[in-house]
Recover the amino acids of this structure.
């Protein structure tokens, strides 16, 4: 009977508030990661389908990123040549598009409502494209640069 009391005390001690909190918090993120992965995959497929419908010219570069991660790319473009940047955000909120140097393209807002934002880009020696999600924006941003 003394051993049972000790075992009961040991079980009670190991499952105190801190131990229970650690266990429940470690199991919750893995469950939510599993739940969000299929929706990110679905959003990615939707964004890629939208871009495929507007594709024209020769593909230079393309990709998909999570809105909170944004897009930060420096594509290799030919000086003086014209390109078209197609962007689509699928989710909620919006993102802001900016170019460096600013003369390479026009800064604009990209709504996360599956509408396509098209921007002409003038090839420069070095062009940086940044798309940054607004606070609390979610979903994915897909982009495609076509030589026209």
């Amino acid at each position: 009977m003394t051993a049972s009391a000790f075992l009961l005390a040991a079980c009670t001690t190991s499952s105190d508030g801190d131990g229970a909190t650690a266990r429940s918090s470690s199991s919750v993120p893995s469950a939510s990661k599993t739940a969000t992965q299929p929706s990110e995959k679905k959003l990615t497929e939707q964004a890629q389908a939208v871009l495929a419908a507007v594709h024209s010219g020769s593909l230079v570069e393309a990709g998909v990123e999570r809105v909170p991660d944004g897009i930060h790319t420096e594509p290799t473009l030919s000086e003086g040549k014209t390109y078209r940047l197609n962007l689509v955000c699928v989710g909620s909120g919006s993102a802001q598009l900016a170019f460096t140097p600013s003369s390479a393209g026009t800064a604009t807002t990209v709504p996360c409502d599956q509408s396509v934002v098209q921007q002409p880009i003038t090839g420069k020696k070095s062009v940086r494209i940044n798309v940054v999600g607004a606070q609390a924006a979610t979903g994915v941003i897909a982009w495609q640069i076509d030589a026209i």
Observations:
- The longest helix spans residues 17-54.
- Residues 87 and 143 are 5 Å apart (CA to CA).
- The radius of gyration is 24 Å.
- Strands lie at 58-66, 71-73, 82-100, 108-122, 128-133, 138-147.
